[in-house]
Amino acid sequence: MGSLAIILRNAGVDIPTEVQVQVDARLRDLKRALDEVPRNSPEWASMKEAGMVLDVQGWRFRCLIEQSGPGGIEMLVVDGATRID
């Protein structure tokens, strides 16, 4: 079972520093938990297909599991951030 890389793709969005710090910590926690999920499990397939949402201090971050090509590195990608309050 490989370890996920964390990739941020929300360039251009001005996220407050205190929110960024909390998001970084939660992403590390999420990565550790996901690293324990068997890649051939139904749970992994569901998360990979549906993605996940992380809400932090009035911000919503969309997280996806992607692969960098056949047999490539699996990545936890934050591909969007929006203000929700």
Structural account:
With 85 residues, the protein is an alpha+beta fold. The protein has one domain. It contains two helices and four strands, in the order βααβββ. The protein has helices spanning 17-35, 42-50; strands spanning 5-8, 52-56, 59-67, 74-83. Strands 1-4-3-2 form a four-stranded mixed beta sheet, with helices on both faces. A hairpin with a 2-residue loop joins β2 (52-56) and β3. The longest helix has 19 residues, at 17-35. The chain is elongated. The model has no long low-confidence stretch (mean pLDDT 88).
Query: Roughly how many Å apart are the termini?
Result: 38 Å
Mean pLDDT: 88
Helix and strand content put the structural class at alpha+beta
**How many DSSP E strands?**
4
Biggest sheet, open or closed, and with what strands and sense? 4 strands, mixed
β-sheet strand percentage:
25-35%
Quick one: overall form? elongated
Structural topology:
Elements: E1 5-8, H1 17-35, H2 42-50, E2 52-56, E3 59-67, E4 74-83
Parallel strand pairs: 1-4
Antiparallel strand pairs: 2-3, 3-4
Give me a quick take on this structure.
Helix content is 33%, strand content 33%. Strands 1-4-3-2 form a 4-stranded mixed sheet, with helices on both faces. It is built from 2 helices and 4 strands, in the order βααβββ.
